[in-house]
Design brief:
The protein has about 260 residues and is an alpha/beta fold. It has one domain: Rossmann fold (3-Layer(aba) Sandwich). It has nine helices and seven strands, in the order βαβαβαβαβααβαααβ. The protein has a seven-stranded parallel beta sheet with strand order 3-2-1-4-5-6-7, sandwiched between helices. The longest helix has 29 residues. The chain is globular. Bound molecules: NADPH dihydro-nicotinamide-adenine-dinucleotide phosphate (NDP). NADPH dihydro-nicotinamide-adenine-dinucleotide phosphate binds next to α1 and α7. The site of NADPH dihydro-nicotinamide-adenine-dinucleotide phosphate has 28 residues, from α1 and α7.
Length: about 260
């Protein structure tokens, strides 16, 4: 067990993939959950899984779009719990395209979800984290650290998120508020299909993942969520500004 009992953790993108599993891992370690997403049916499934693993924690569901409803997320959390200890900025989208074939609207959309909403929500939550000496975990990507062609807006958004993590970590250190990120490689979730891949291309992409990850395979949500929860816990009390690669070695590979 990590030291998280009675902590209140907001997790965005809690209705699917890495975010849903992160809620379950927080619940397992005794934290109360604020699960944020747009798809309410999926949020309810996350809630059921949290209750199943630990019936002693509360799981508040907030149906919200992170690009529009950041104040609602903070207001409803404070109304229910009167404090916030952890913010996990996990909601994100992926879009394919390179400079010659994508339009600037795609860049705006991706930046809006993957960066601008993070800025807005973090700014609203930080006064509460300063009070609780809490922390932020951003869900970035290997694409923030390394460069890949034809996922331009996504790479740019995650690279910007990594600077956001490090700059805010420096600003918040004096308040004992830590800010870190995890940077996963390919993880099996809905994001690639939602970003436009059909079943066949997705299967090929996962197969190709055997070559693009040093460990010869892609990852699972159960390999990412525990690291998020660790960074959010007291066990990580001297870690701030860290970008933690969880990528089976993808980020350290070089062609030769
Ligand atoms: P999923 O597509 O499975 O989940 C994405 C989540 O983000 C959903 O819960 C979705 O909620 C939420 N979301 C998206 N847009 C919004 C919005 N405007 N408002 C509120 N919620 C929103 O993907 P993953 O679990 O893979 O993605 C989670 C994070 O992990 C992302 O930041 C992604 O970039 C990152 N990541 C993923 C990798 C992977 O290979 N899977 C690799 C590296 C990083 P809803 O549908 O309810 O709106």
């Amino acid at each position: 067990m990590l030291r998280l009992a009675e902590k209140v953790a907001i997790i965005t993108g809690a209705s699917s993939g890495i975010g849903a599993e992160t809620c379950i891992q927080f619940a397992k370690n005794g934290a109360h959950i604020v699960a944020v997403g747009r798809n309410f049916e999926n949020l309810k499934q996350t809630q059921n899984s949290c209750m199943k693993i630990n019936p002693n924690v509360k799981c508040l569901l907030i149906q919200a779009d992170v690009t529009k409803d950041t104040k609602k997320i903070v207001d409803q959390t404070i109304a229910e719990f009167e404090k916030i200890d952890v913010l996990v900025n996990n909601a994100g989208i992926l879009a394919n395209g390179g400079i010659l074939d994508m339009d600037v609207e795609q860049l705006d959309t991706v930046m809006d979800v993957n960066l601008r909403s993070v800025f807005q929500l973090t700014k609203l939550v930080l006064p509460h984290l300063i009070k609780s000496k809490g922390n932020v975990v951003n869900v970035s990507s290997v694409t923030g650290i390394r460069s890949f062609p034809y996922v331009l807006s996504y790479c740019v958004s995650k690279a910007a998120l990594d600077q956001f993590t490090k700059c805010v970590a420096l600003e918040m250190a004096q308040h004992n508020v830590r800010v870190n990120s995890v940077n996963p490689g390919t993880v099996v979730t809905e994001i690639h299909k939602r970003g436009g891949m059909d079943e066949k291309s997705y299967a090929e992409f996962l197969k190709h993942g055997r070559d693009t990850h040093a460990m010869g395979r892609v990852g699972n949500v159960s390999e990412v969520a525990p690291a998020i929860v660790f960074l959010a816990s007291e066990e990580a009390s001297f870690i701030t500004g860290a970008l933690l690669s969880i990528d089976g070695g993808k980020g350290i590979m070089c062609p030769r």
